[in-house]
Amino acid sequence: MKKIEPRTNHIIVEQQKQDQVGSILIPDDAQKKEDSHWVTVAVGADVKDIKPGDELLFDSHCCIKVGIAGIPENYHIVLAANIIGIIKNT
């Protein structure tokens, strides 16, 4: 498998589908991209407040799908400035 390193202020995120809410299973065709969970895989050198494993909130239209053979197909690149928030468990 290949590895991708984000440059400067970019973040690599992995799209993880939220296929279950409580005990209700949501079928794939009923899910929207916006309802997905985005988890940080890697961050560029200039990104200081986000770390791998953080769950992020951002407009899904602001990311670019990584379409490279050998890279997981659910990886996307997003500019750090487009991050709206970090989701924290309380």
Structure description:
By secondary structure, the protein is an all-beta fold. It has one domain. The chain is built from no helices and eight strands. It has a six-stranded antiparallel β-sheet with strand order 6-7-1-4-5-8, with no helix packed on it. A hairpin with a 2-residue loop joins strand 2 (20-21) and strand 3 (24-25).
Q: Topology, please?
A:
Layout: E1 10-16, E2 20-21, E3 24-25, E4 37-43, E5 55-58, E6 63-65, E7 75-79, E8 83-87
Antiparallel strand pairs: 1-4, 1-7, 2-3, 4-5, 5-8, 6-7
Query: Count the helices. How many?
Result: 0
Question: Which strand order does the major sheet show?
Answer: 6-7-1-4-5-8
Beta-strand percentage range: 35-45%
- The low-pLDDT segments are none
Please estimate the helix content. Answer: under 10%
